[in-house]
Structure formats: structure tokens, C-alpha cells
Amino acid sequence: MMKAISFLHPEFFWLFLLIPIAVAWHFWKNQRQSATLKISSINGFRNQKTFISKTKPYLFILRLLALSFLIVGLARPRKEDISNQTKTTKGIDIVMAIDVSGSMLAKDLKPNRMEALKKVANNFVEGRPNDRIGIVVYAAEAYTKTPVTSDKAIVQEAIKSIKYDNTIQDGTGIGMGLTTAVNRLKDSKAKSKVIILLTDGVNNAGFIEPETASEITKEYGIKVYTIGLGTNGNAEFPYAYGPNGEFLYKMMPVEIDVELLKTIAKNTGGKYFRANSNDKLEEIYNEINKLETTEIQELKFYDYDEKFRPFALIALFLLLLEVALRNTIFKSFI
Asked: Angle formed by the axes of helices 174-185 and 258-268, to 10°?
């Protein structure tokens, strides 16, 4: 309960330092005002104390309690209720262009490149609640799996459903994937437009050259972050179907057109990354997440329920009680 209580003027709590001074003053004053009477014996006064005489010292305690409640009241205790509203003032539109060629089934990332990417991409979407995101997949051809949308459930379901199949011809058409992503962003009114282009190979398909796609991207003011996916050296690649219908794997060299990806990123004001492990891939998406921040305006509404009145009323009651007792029951003793 006290966690919800705040004090508008906590500096008044320094007045509690006066209480020990008041106690010391009270005892010093009583000693100065007490008269001394010398008699030969006090036997006649023993066992003569009444209930009223015994409770006389408690009058001063009432005054101390009244002072304490008054100090707390002056500090203005109040219950604070804060409601937040956030408003995205400058949003970002993001398209993830994902290579879905057969080489994405390579096992240098666990369990394979495609599944590792899907997990990281899903977390990336989860961390961008205020932006619009779209998904483009490409191999030799490209198509939009999900247009740019603010509905994160749709985007995450689209990522979950990504798989290698015969829907589009196998190969790696980087220019095709980039151009399709540009088409989803070219009419966007967002203050920032971003493409995250991921591939694990070299451009060997499609009728649009990556360099041409890069120039188109630059003209529309779209920034491209490129990611080369794959270990350095050799990896287990699928090369044929076995008798049971499953892929057969063999060790093959990993080939990524690093210079092309660097050029695309540089021309558009983006950045090139190399993901050679699951952890590195996650780090890259986290870094992109930090680089592309969305400007958020947060509005806070405060509702205060003042709690000083009960303390002031209790202090007043204790003072009146002390005055009443001092001038009635204890009048003859003081």
C-alpha cells in the first residue's frame, strides 16, 4: 500500500528532529518548575497514587503524537495513479527480403539456416511493436508473402510458414528480391524506409541485376541492410533427394558475394553484416533493431488522491484531547 503513496513536500520530515528536542525541553522544564519539600519521613505518602496521577505523564505523549501526525500531514501524502499513453510520432516501414533457395537448408546453422533465420526474424518483429513490417521471399524469382502491415500476428505467421518448396524456381536472384521489396516501400509515407536483405549465396538468377536494383532503391530513399548468411569454409548442403524423398547432404564450400552485398549497403546508406552462426545472426538483428529506432511520444496522466486530511484531523483531535484533559481531569495536578 505504501508503495502507492508519495509525498509532495518530503522536506517537512526534517521536523521530526525537533521531537527529541521537545522531549528534552519538557523534562528540563518540569525539573525547573518542581518544588522541593524536605520532610523527615514519606511513609504517610506511600501507596497513595491514583489512576489519574499515574496517567499524568501521558498528556505529553499526546502532544508528541499530535506533532508527528501534523508533520506527516505537512509532507502532503497522496496516492498517485499514473496512466500512460504512447503515440508513435515517426514510424518506420521495414521489409525483410529473405532468400528461400535450396542452399538455405544448409546445416552450418542449427538446425539449418532457414529455421535459424525464422526464429531470429520472429523475435525481431516482436521487438518492433510500433512499426510496419512486410515479408518478401525470393529464390530465382520473388514474391510478396506479406505486404507492409502493423499487424504483427500476420507477419509472424508469414515468417513461420516460410519453407523451401517448388513454388518458385530455385536459384538466387538478389536483384529480384531487392526490387520486389522496393515495390512494397516506394509509396510509403513513413519517415524511414528500410530493407533487410538476407542471402546465403551469389546472384545467379533473375532478369534484374542487383546493381540496377540498388540504384532504384537509392532513388526512393530506402536504406538496405545486407546480411550474408553462412559459415566461413565448408558446410553441409543438400544436393539431391534420397530414395526416401529426403535430402542428401554433402560438404561444399560456402560462397557469398560479399562485395556485392557491401556495395548495395553502401550505396543506400545501410550496412553489411556477416552471420556465420546462430548467435551472430541474432546479434545482427539486435544491432539493426538498435540502429533503426522509432521516435515515440509518451504521455503520462497523473491522478492524485490527497491523504493529508486524516493526519491533520488526528493531530487536531489529539491536541484538543490534551487541552481538554489538562483543563478538566488533570487540572488540579498540573
From this structure: 20
* pLDDT, position 307: 83
Is residue 97 a contact partner of residue 178, using CB atoms and an 8 Å limit?
Answer: yes
Please tell me the distance from the alpha carbon of residue 326 to that of residue 264, in angstroms, as a whole number.
91
Measured CA to CA, the distance from residue 177 to residue 137 in angstroms comes to: 7
Q: What pLDDT was estimated at residue 67?
A: 86
The three-class DSSP label of residue 300 is strand
What is the rounded (10 degree) CA torsion for 89, 95, 96, 102?
170
Instruction: At 28, give phi and psi (nearest 5°).
Output: -65, -45
Cell numbers linked to 193: 524506409
Closest C-alpha to 220, from 90, 95, 129, 125: 95
State the sign of the Cα–Cα–Cα–Cα dihedral 263, 260, 134, 285.
negative
Query: Is the dihedral angle over the CA atoms 218, 271, 284, 111 positive or is it negative?
Result: positive
The DSSP bridge pattern shows strands 142-149 and 132-138 to be antiparallel
DSSP bridge pairs for 174? none
Q: How far apart are CA 133 and CA 149, in angstroms?
A: 5
- pLDDT beneath 50, residues of the chain: 1-2, 333-334
Q: How far is CA 123 from CA 32, 149, 174, 203, 226, in A?
A: 78, 16, 24, 28, 18
pLDDT number for residue 333: 45
Comparing C-alpha atoms, which of 177, 95, 99, 94 is closest to residue 143? 177
For the whole prediction, is pTM greater than 0.70?
no
